[in-house]
């Protein structure tokens, strides 16, 4: 895209693109300035006893990592591939956590100087002790806890319920004792990542309070020299009602109050979705509009193989319509006025749905749909190869 002094917008990209070509518009567009501003706002709102990490799996795009690197305190990684992606961006502190680790990943984490490794089970601990002894190193670990009681109002629960993540809270004392018997690991703290897409700020503060209390209890009970309480991520995006977002100000204020119980510990936040969701847009052209069984359907270039999240969660992706007045064909242009429409993709499956029966004022073939909040768990969680359609263009605004 041509660079000019003005701040670039998604609409500017669409207009430039439309005059260029025959192919239907289909792109992921990232507004890097929006990301930079958002990351700075988050960072500045947190008290000094907090460290802000970005959870790379939400979106590992190198352009995004480069924007975030100067602002965040580190990156949370969950595979050897993510370690490499971070290394390509620079020397940045890392926390490595994964529920099923391979020897090569633990070795990569040791070799690349990852700051802390999560321990998710007794097997995980044994494997680290074994590898650390071979390499004559001491691995700094965070023990990932699966709490005994759940965290209300969250979408994907990973703690307080039976799940594959972490060490059962009841087994934590045994695991601590085992770790304390060896010179090859050093317990640096506890890790509590427990949920995904929590929209309730007050509930999240209560969760953090629980994390601090538990950590301090074990710190005292076992006379641990720990410094970290890692609360993971899980801050939500309100895809259903974007006008009522997670109340970050209330959350930050609540965290600030917890300064009185945090003692000498540092609170680590590993924010994924909330960091990058809003800087990403999936932009695509309407190919057809039709009526079947008294319902309207709009079909677009692309679909769930580019943006799987709404299909996975059976929800409607928030969107806005970019109207296009020109119509390049000699035949009638299909469209709807003031109707409820389902927006589907180009795949041959009824699951390829991005929006379910939302009302629109007007939607016509040739218009362009800008799907919003598509910067996290979007492109990378999608099944790109299904049906062998071309991939979307990747566009970065305001580099
Ligand atoms: C996925 C994940 C995160 C980020 O979660 P979000 O819900 O995207 O904020 C943080 N920590 C761990 C361990 C994770 O697995």
From TrEMBL:
Superkingdom field: Bacteria
Protein name per its UniProtKB record: Siderophore biosynthesis PLP-dependent protein
Alphabetical keyword list: Pyridoxal phosphate
Domain Orn/DAP/Arg decarboxylase 2 N-terminal: 33-277
In-chain residues carrying the UniProt-annotated modification N6-(pyridoxal phosphate)lysine: 57
InterPro entries per UniProt: Ala_racemase/Decarboxylase_C, De-COase2_C, De-COase2_N, Orn/DAP/Arg_de-COase, Orn_de-COase, PLP-binding_barrel
Active-site residues per Swiss-Prot or TrEMBL entry: 348 (proton donor)
GO molecular function, one term: diaminopimelate decarboxylase activity
SUPFAM superfamilies in the cross-refs: Alanine racemase C-terminal domain-like, PLP-binding barrel
Organism: Halobacillus litoralis
Residue stretches in coiled coil: none
GO terms of biological process kind: lysine biosynthetic process via diaminopimelate; polyamine biosynthetic process
Domain Orn/DAP/Arg decarboxylase 2 C-terminal: 28-375
A Pfam family per the record: Orn_Arg_deC_N
PANTHER family the UniProt entry points to: DIAMINOPIMELATE DECARBOXYLASE (PTHR43727), GROUP IV DECARBOXYLASE (PTHR43727:SF2)
Cofactor: pyridoxal 5'-phosphate
Membership in a protein family: Belongs to the Orn/Lys/Arg decarboxylase class-II family.
